[in-house]
Amino acid sequence: MEWTHTVTAVFLALGCLFSLAGSVGLLRFPDFYSRLHAAGKTDSLAQMLILGGLLFVSPDWGVSARLAIIALILFFTAPTATHAITKAARLDGLEPWTKEDSRRE
Amino acid sequence: MNEVLLVDSVLLFLVTVCAVAIIEVRSLYAVAMLTSVYSLLMALVWTNMHSMDVAFTEAAVGGGISTILLIGTLVHTRRDEKPAKKRVHVPALLVTLLTGGALIYGTFDMPRFGDPEATIHHYRVPEMMSQTVAFVSEREGKQAPPEGYEPPPRMVPTAAPPHGHDAAHGDEAEHAAEGADHGAEGEHHEDGGHHKHPADDFNGHVPNSVTSLLAAYRGFDTMFETTVIFTAGMALILLLRRPREEESTPQEGATLRGQVILRVMTKIFIPFILVFGFYVITHGEIGPGGGFQGGVILATAFILYALIYGRNALYRIISPKTLDVLAAVGVLLYAGVGVACLALGGKFLDYAVLDKVSPGDGEALGMTLVEYGVGITVCTVMIIIFNQLAEEPAKAKAS
Amino acid sequence: MSELLGIYNYWIYVVLMMIGFYGVIAKKNLIKQAIALGLFQTGIFLFYISMAVVDGGTAPIWTTIGDGSIKALGPYDNPLPHVLILTAIVVSVSVLAVALAIIINIKWKYGTIEYDEIAAMDRASGGGDDD
Question: What is the ipTM score, two decimals?
Answer without folding.
Answer: 0.89
